[in-house]
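User: Before I run my own analysis I want an independent prediction to cross-check against. Here's the chain; please return only the structure tokens and, at the end, one sentence I can use as a sanity check.
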Amino acid sequence: MTPYHDNQEKHVLRAEYEAALYQPSEQLGRQRRLARRLAQTAEIIVGLPLDIVRERRGEQPCYSAHPLDRVWDSDEVYHNRILATATFVRLGKIAAADVNSEGLLRHDPLYLLSTYFSAYHNTTGRLEAVDKLIWAPDATIADYRMPLEQIDSRWGQFLTDQPRGSVAEIGSLAKINDASPRAPLAIFREMFAFVRDHNIRYLTAGLEPKLYPGYQRLFGAALRRLNPEDELVVFPGVIGGQVPLLVEVEHAYRQFQETKHQGSLRERLAKHIVEEYFANRIDLAN
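Assistant: Structure tokens:
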């Protein structure tokens, strides 16, 4: 496979960034956003294909993730939870009063239902991103956090009717400030592999409103919103409103394919690369 290069898009971003350098101080926010977009473009357009090539050669990629066993990987689970808790306190999503002296939630009812995922930079060993999948073979949607009374009643009934073990909830992604976008993608890929291996049919999640447009552009119709566009829901233990989402695992790849050719040149290129990256780990066609 030949690495993709979106030179045209990168040149446009670079020109915008350099122009922003000469703007008054009130333009500094725009300058930072442009710089961030440029860095993320390089990570996805250049960095991720290099990881794909390394994996196909049997070499270790720059970023990798794996699910953690609460018993055998207890130290890693501990650091995973510490990073998540600290991140959400800093972002104002968890109250500091709800955290104990160890840096963990005083009350975490979903701990025993959670499989934790951590993403590392394989050269430095640095932990860059964490997430968790809330699921158990005998659990139902009622055992998770999705506030069924706040979403569209038809979706609420649909999820309630699903058999035990067929629905899981994606926890909230947390990452360090300078984390590569490759780190969350490594987590999502391993999480999706776990989902396929355990015959989980539906994934639910709550997403920050400001993040929803970007995820929707990337994954398209594979993401189903469970309430009207102008409404948010409140998850237990989370401060502020969230966008409630559903992914139908069986049809997610087909739905992703339908929107793969939509969006800007950069977005279309990113989707193709993400597809190749996931295909390295998962048989997407089945």
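Sanity check: Residues 1-61 form one domain.
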